Amino acid sequence: MKKNFLPYNSQQIDEKDIKSVMSALRSPYLTTGPIADEFEKELAQYLGVKYAVVCANGTAALHLSMLALGIGSGDKIITSPISFVADANAPRFCGADVIFADIDPITINLDPQEVRKVLKREKNVKAIIPVHFAGQPCRMDEFNKIAKEFNLNIIEDGCHALGGSYIKDNKSVKVGSCADSLLTTFSFHPIKNITTGEGGAITTNDKNLYKKLRLLRSHGNTRNSDDFLMHDLSHTNFKQSKLLNPWYYEMQYLSHNYRLTDFQAALGKSQLKKLDKFIRKRNELSSLYDKLFEELDQKRILPLDNLFEGTHGRHLYVVRIPMNQLNGGRAKLMMDLLDDGIQTQVHYIPIYLQPNYREYFKEKLYFPFSEEYYKNCLSLPLFVGMTNKDVKRVVSSLNNILDKNWNPSSKKKK
User: Fold this and answer.
1) Least C-beta-crowded within 10 Å: which of 134, 324, 374, 412?
2) If one looks up domain 275-410 in CATH, what number appears?
3) Does the structural domain 15-222+252-272 have CATH classification 3.40.640.10?
4) Residue 325: left (phi > 0), alpha (psi -120 to 50), or beta?
5) How far apart are the C-alpha atoms of 35 and 245, rounded to whole Å?
6) What is the pTM assigned to this prediction?
7) Is 412 helix (H, G, I), strand (E, B) or coil?
């Protein structure tokens, strides 16, 4: 790797973060404890939601959401093909089926009208998972209307959009406030807008779901005596009263160990304080990218449009390039950029093209907008530690490589 290597994304850790983690490591708790509880409260307050439950990772957050809603065999969940595989895997972990609907070709978010088409032909659909792709909020008002019309639940995948917001009833609401959904999930992976190393969270305004999620996060166990069901086991008769057995706990659900450690939560608490600053920086860098590409005055690099009011989460900066007009296509473009010390990525391969999903569906699926997007997309470096000089370097390098490899005659005929 070159000395001035630019990754496509990277965490931003400072001394305050390190001190927070060190302090947690010196405390009596290492696994889920009081710091995790504090992180949950601070996260909920920041998002404007009643409850937050932190967990092991974003995939765990999705799986726990399915378990909390009782999703199981015979149920169907609709989501986007342009996302990480976890959105499709989580329903299947519970024995449910996943169904895809195509994306909006401009925003790359799940298209509400395509979801309607699916709902007209499919029965037993229990939930929709809209994905706020790259940090741009989905059309949640439309999904909310669909959910009410078809009696469905909405689980937002907010993993790209922490810190983002949209306008509802002339007010700004955070992604994660659950203003138009039952649950929202987040990831705190190192490349997300804040990190706990690995980690995730679920937010909700439903108290019963909140209590159930906390149990499901830890093997389905509870030590809260108010919730005990087996009083003959939980108490000891003594004289005229019953003593609570201090060792007692109850497993009330079959579940997993999806806990977050206290030292991870300490990092999350520290990072959360800087989230608004991080989002401003990501949007400033993205605006500079937009300006520089516009100044090039050419049509071969097309950034994704930001169409809606509110704050873009700016997890990714994605451009579309007609890759079939390049000698060597996207593969050579990415390798040439890497030779210049610039890492890029593709978000994402449509999930249904993965080998496991080809076998799962038993038939070839085709979503034209998803596949057209996939053919031409490229994620450029975007992270808080970047400078304006770095952005200019990426734009210059990308443009120069396109000049060298541009060959419209290589475009394949249909």
Assistant:
1) 412
2) 3.90.1150.10
3) yes
4) alpha
5) 27
6) 0.96
7) coil
